[in-house]
Amino acid sequence: MTNVLRYGLIGAGMMGREHLRNIALVDEVEVVALADDFPESLERAAKYAPGAATHDSAEALLARDDLDAVVIATPNHTHVNVVPPAVEAGLHILCEKPLATTLDDARTLRDLGNASEKVFWVGMEYRYIPAVARLIAEVDAGTPGPLRMLSIREHRRSFLPKVRDWNRFNRNSGGTLVEKCCHHFDLMRRIVGREPVRIYASGAQDVNHLDERYHGETPDILDNAYVIVDFEGG
């Protein structure tokens, strides 16, 4: 094969498998390697990438010399450790959202991405949903007139189960407003076309996951919250 983009996948859980299904829809692309330290996830993912080599660590995958790009779909709090060696390996990178769980880590990874000569992309795909893309196009064209306020609301089920229950705690996920609502903040910035200057927020955990225990700990995930974002220019 010629002109084939050769992918590796780090993190073979639910989102990793979703990426494999999407990559399979693209021409001139080959998944050559998968990595995960949870054998069951690796086994499931291998079904979507026949012939791909499997590794039990990101380090082993990144040591390969036959990759052009890598998808990073590991738990949120691990990105700060997984992304830098992928950048150093000279690969194009698609990192699942959120980029990081703290501002300091996000800034560190942002700077690495900006300094890289390769594509560095975070998976904020909501802006490409057809209905949302149409909304963005209409706002950009001025169809609704001057934009004075933008409201986004989501009602959703509680967090899905994940390997080793990592997403039950804010220290791993970044919290509900980071793990899930980063999509909405991305849309706000894209639709408004300006940067935020002030944020007000409040939230609570009143129902979800309060009856669960993991190694003696109760999950601390917010199940309700509101955020008001003031943008440049009012």
What descriptive keywords fit this protein?
single chain; 234 residues; alpha/beta; Rossmann fold; 2 domains; six-stranded parallel sheet; two-stranded antiparallel ribbon; 8 strands; 32% helix; globular
Description:
- With 234 residues, the protein is of the alpha/beta class.
- The protein has two domains: 5-123, Rossmann fold; 152-231, no CATH class.
- It has nine helices and eight strands.
- It has helices at 14-23, 39-46, 58-62, 79-88, 103-115, 130-140, 170-173, 176-179, 182-192, and strands spanning 5-10, 29-35, 53-55, 69-72, 92-95, 120-122, 196-204, 224-231.
- It has a six-stranded parallel sheet with strand order 3-2-1-4-5-6, sandwiched between helices. A two-stranded antiparallel ribbon has the order 7-8.
- Helix 4 (79-88) packs parallel to helix 5 (103-115).
- The radius of gyration is 19 Å and the shape is globular.
- The model has no long low-confidence stretch (mean pLDDT 96).
- How many β-strands, per DSSP? 8
CATH superfamily of the largest domain: NAD(P)-binding Rossmann-like Domain
Helical residues, percent? 25-40%
Side-by-side strand order of the widest sheet: 3-2-1-4-5-6
Class by SSE composition: alpha/beta
Inertia-based shape: globular
Q: Identify the CATH architecture of the largest domain.
A: 3-Layer(aba) Sandwich
- What profile does the largest beta sheet have? 6 strands, parallel
The name CATH uses for the topology of the largest domain is Rossmann fold
Mean pLDDT: 96
The overall number of domains is 2
**Low-confidence regions:** none
Number of helices: 9
Kindly provide the name of the CATH class of the largest domain: Alpha Beta
Rg, nearest Å? 19 Å
